[in-house]
Structures are given as C-alpha cells and as structure tokens.
UniProtKB/TrEMBL annotation:
It comes from Microbacterium aerolatum. One of its GO terms (cellular component) is cytoplasm. InterPro entries: FUR, Fur_C, WH-like_DNA-bd_sf, WH_DNA-bd_sf. PANTHER family: TRANSCRIPTIONAL REGULATOR FURA, ZINC UPTAKE REGULATION PROTEIN. One of its GO terms (molecular function) is DNA-binding transcription factor activity. Its cofactor is Mn(2+); Fe(2+); Zn(2+). Fe cation binds at residue 113. Binds 1 Mn(2+) or Fe(2+) ion per subunit. Keywords: Cytoplasm, DNA-binding, Iron, Metal-binding, Repressor, Transcription, Transcription regulation, Zinc. One of its GO terms (biological process) is regulation of secondary metabolite biosynthetic process. Its main location: cytoplasm. This is Transcriptional repressor.
Amino acid sequence: MTTAAPPEATERLRAAGLRVTVQRVAVLEALAVHPHASADTVFSSLRETLSGLALPTVHGILGDLTGAGIVRRVSLPDAGSALYEVQDEFDNHHHLQCVECGRVEDVACATGEAPCLHPSHDHGMRIIEASVTYRAICSDCERNK
C-alpha cells in the first residue's frame, strides 16, 4: 500500500531521526483519532487497511515513537495494558479515569506549567514531570448504577 504521509507526521518522524514508513504514519494517525489507545486498539484499527501488519510490529513502532518522544506511554491503574497518546511538547496534562468503564480523559495541569506539582523534598533532583491520575465515575456509569 502506497499513500502519501501527512506532512505533520512525516515532519515529526524525520525531526526525531526516524525513517518515515507507512506503518509509523498509520500508527500516529490512529493515535490522533484514538487517544489513550492500547497497542491492541491501534492494531485493531489498522489491520484491515494495512495488510500484513502484525501486533508485534505495532508494539515495536509504539516503542520507537515513545523513545523518540513523539508518543507518550500512559500507565493507569486498572488499565489492562499501557495506553499511548501523541505527545505535544507544549502540552502539560494529567488524566481522569472512570473506575467503572475505564474511560480516560485529559485534564489540564492544575497550575498550567510543568511540572505543575512540587514534592516536599526533591532529594537534589530536578523535577521534569509530575503525573496525576484522577479516579472517578463517569456520568454514563453513574446513571447505570
């Protein structure tokens, strides 16, 4: 399958020193449409349009994209596996997770600047990120109780 890669995906891959491939572009596009997706979800969304794509290939691409800083790996309680989202270098956000259905939403940083939370003691380390997961029950699950 030969398709023209979207300029943004192509530029991000090249800027990170990664080769532009149809599979990498497709994974980036899938994450743009399905943020907070597992490797299985990405694979399921692509397997019909990309013949020959295998789940281990998707895992490898997600690893490459995460290592290059293009994609962020999100580990949340009660999520069956790691979730991935396209990383925006200027974005600083946390996550809200429904404890019933697992739905995940982005929540803006409380103070608006990284790392947005400061520990009581930094042990001589420069803090670069703080990760918060708000656990809640979404309105759909609340109505169904």
